[in-house]
Amino acid sequence: MRLTSARLRAALLAAASLTLVAAALPPAQPLGIGDRLFPTLGNPGYDVLAYDLSFAYRSNDAPLDAVTVITARTLEPLERVNLDFTHGKVAAAEVNGQPAAFESAGEDLVLTPRTPLPRGAALHITVRHTSDPRGRGDGGWVTTGDGLAMANQADAAHRVFPCNDHPADKAYFTFRITTPAGKTAVANGLPVAPAHRAAGGAGTTWIYRSHHPMATELAQVSIGDSAVVRRTGPRDLPIRDVVPAADRERLEKWLKKTPAHLEWMEQRVGRYPFETYGVLIAGANTGFELETQTLSLFERSIFTDTAYPEWYVESIMVHELAHQWFGDSVTPRTWSDLWLNEGHATWYEALYADGLGKYSLERRMREAYQRSDQWRAAGGPPAEPKAAAPGQKIGLFRPVVYDGAALVLYALRQKIGTAAFERLERRWVAEHADSTAGTADFIAMASQEAGTDLTAFLRPWLYGKTTPPMPGHPEWSGPKRV
């Protein structure tokens, strides 16, 4: 074989040197940070600071062309960098501006840089890949009637883009989405600039950026025949709703409720923590609603199916809104801390319904108490839930982490009183804003607000196989449980 140019010779030599570096190391292995419920999620050795994601969408029947750029820093010396990624094809990868060898190991994409990385080094990764929305039922891209949306909770962001897919590693996000003419793209955060004609005139490019760090499971990109509806909330907060254009007028009765919902939540826990909020209503049957940061995902049928009472729909809207504080701004350190997300969102959902006079908080908590032992047997205690069965992505989201966890908060309020409980709630979201926190942190802060160590009280509620007696309600105990 004859080399025809100096440039080609250099490229082949570079590829050969990368192959030799990779061959000198042990076989690549999938790694994780040891989460009890998702042991292979996340990757040790680095901290992601920012993602810059580019997607080029053609149709639901074709993979999106994508580029993922990651800015990070190393926490230890690294010969390889593991990223969580699957369901896409990688064309090329670079580490700190130099080509890097890449290979798959389980659901990891393993990069081998040309030279090892020291501890504390800047890390700039570029991966050129596809992102495939076709034929998947395990999260990530969700096919809608007119395009796509994301549903990455709990372990599916890496089915869309290479990442450190664990909520313990939050980062800032920029999204660059190119769509065909007539499609609208929306993502977390706010627009960086008006939508503009894509390079080469092929469609439109939309750019959004988050103003606060975000967990990968909360990323959202919507592409569709959408209407973007704008209004303002408390203190002129921009509210942006994204709905099927054909349903714009029909859905207005629900969209206009959000400013009052925001005011209601702020009265109880303090200022809304992000730069914008809104609901994304998708023509898809997901079986769940999702608190994607600044833009909560809802199924269209929640708002159009008349079988749902209006008070119930509003309470679900408040549930996802409450998550913006509990789960999004204050993110769980591990997936076992999920009760802090879902328990709090369920708590404020229940409080809202109670305020409407439709379903009293005490009745709901008593009914939860009667079922709590059954829930614990099936799904584990609230702060130590059982792992989901293989292939059942949302199996982790059982009643014990919803009403079962809200019941823990009710017991805590019974124990320490309403005033101390409300101080705790405000302090929790204020002191852990834009960060991560876990169950031990909550117990410690609750103890501080109560003025006494609550460990012995809270641990049986959070980790016990059976439900402790409810303070103030001796009549709830005994044979009435079902």
TrEMBL record:
<dbReference type="InterPro" id="IPR045357">
    <property type="entry name" value="Aminopeptidase_N-like_N"/>
</dbReference>
<keyword id="KW-0378">Hydrolase</keyword>
<keyword id="KW-0479">Metal-binding</keyword>
<dbReference type="InterPro" id="IPR042097">
    <property type="entry name" value="Aminopeptidase_N-like_N_sf"/>
</dbReference>
<dbReference type="InterPro" id="IPR027268">
    <property type="entry name" value="Peptidase_M4/M1_CTD_sf"/>
</dbReference>
<dbReference type="Pfam" id="PF01433">
    <property type="entry name" value="Peptidase_M1"/>
</dbReference>
<dbReference type="Pfam" id="PF17900">
    <property type="entry name" value="Peptidase_M1_N"/>
</dbReference>
<keyword id="KW-0482">Metalloprotease</keyword>
<protein>
    <recommendedName>
        <fullName>Aminopeptidase N</fullName>
        <ecNumber>3.4.11.2</ecNumber>
    </recommendedName>
</protein>
<dbReference type="InterPro" id="IPR001930">
    <property type="entry name" value="Peptidase_M1"/>
</dbReference>
<feature type="domain" description="Peptidase M1 membrane alanine aminopeptidase">
    <location>
        <begin position="260"/>
        <end position="461"/>
    </location>
</feature>
<feature type="signal peptide">
    <location>
        <begin position="1"/>
        <end position="22"/>
    </location>
</feature>
<keyword id="KW-0031">Aminopeptidase</keyword>
<dbReference type="InterPro" id="IPR050344">
    <property type="entry name" value="Peptidase_M1_aminopeptidases"/>
</dbReference>
<keyword id="KW-0862">Zinc</keyword>
<keyword id="KW-0732">Signal</keyword>
<dbReference type="InterPro" id="IPR014782">
    <property type="entry name" value="Peptidase_M1_dom"/>
</dbReference>
<keyword id="KW-0645">Protease</keyword>
<feature type="domain" description="Aminopeptidase N-like N-terminal">
    <location>
        <begin position="153"/>
        <end position="201"/>
    </location>
</feature>
<comment type="similarity">
    <text>Belongs to the peptidase M1 family.</text>
</comment>
